């Protein structure tokens, strides 16, 4: 089973969290957030990056019409706010907890730069994570701009397969245990929850997949 928590078979939290480093451990704490709490807003000062120890965080922004646009929903072990490392001075997006037990590891930009200067492996992994996230965001924006909703869903399911899927030895199906609600998925593919439910049921009737609250099973003859 592969997920972002095991990026290149390395636990991101073990690699990136400053409290794992002796020089920073004594002064390092975790921040707790409830559902709908904001970690930061658009235009806030960008002086930290964040690593999710537990829970889920929504990254997005508001259009000129006031509509919320969701860029990503992140889970345990994922990094966000990382553009601060690259010199961003103010946030161009918001970050909001969407779980009642979200725990965040905040890392000051100066601390991150120190760690990157002193540890080449650490630095390499940070840049690799950033590159991976940018590539994924670019792909998702292309889907939203150029593909119909059903195609966006099918390609998102393919992405879930890569991150959370494994082969069922008995049937050969792809089984996906994922952390997203239907509302999360609907936000990520730019549709409504009712429309998503209709599309999932269509795919079920076409014998492409079966789904429950936390599991999607893609049948062998399709996967």
TrEMBL record:
Residue intervals of the HTH crp-type domain: 147-222
Keywords: DNA-binding, Transcription, Transcription regulation
Cyclic nucleotide-binding domain sequence ranges: 12-91
Keyword Transcription regulation: yes
Pfam families, A to Z: cNMP_binding (PF00027), HTH_Crp_2 (PF13545)
Keyword NADP applies: no
Name recorded for this polypeptide: Crp/Fnr family transcriptional regulator
Organism taxonomic ancestry: Bacteria, Pseudomonadati, Bacteroidota, Flavobacteriia, Flavobacteriales
